[in-house]
Fold this protein.
Amino acid sequence: MALIRLCHTAELEASGPAAANSGRRLQVDAPDGRRLLVIEADGQIHVIEDDCPHQYFPLGDGNLQGTVLTCALHGWRFDLTDGRSLDMPGVCVERWQPVVEDGWISIEFTPLD
Ligand code: FES
């Protein structure tokens, strides 16, 4: 499967309700229409589906502490390193392993387990 280029690291922007604690991020559209979130946390780039699995609010609007992203609507927390919810056992956000070359962030558009 071919790599799909999402964005350049220079496009990531600090945002969120507490910008000082929020990683640089960008919401992008996947080729199949899904919205993805590219976010830098603890010096690592993560790519997850942007829609919260609870009620599909954009996770990119949430607050980041370390590698834990908190949905801004009802507060479900997700660990970016594995996608798992810290509040709802068995619930995960879909995530992809990014490839970063010369600042360009790409993914193989195959969901991780
Ligand atoms: S929509 Fe994210 S916790 Fe409810």
Notes: The chain has one domain: 3-108. The pocket of FE2/S2 (inorganic) cluster is lined by residues 52, 54-55, 57, 71, 73-74, 76 (CB under 6 Å). The first strand starts at residue 3 and ends at 8.
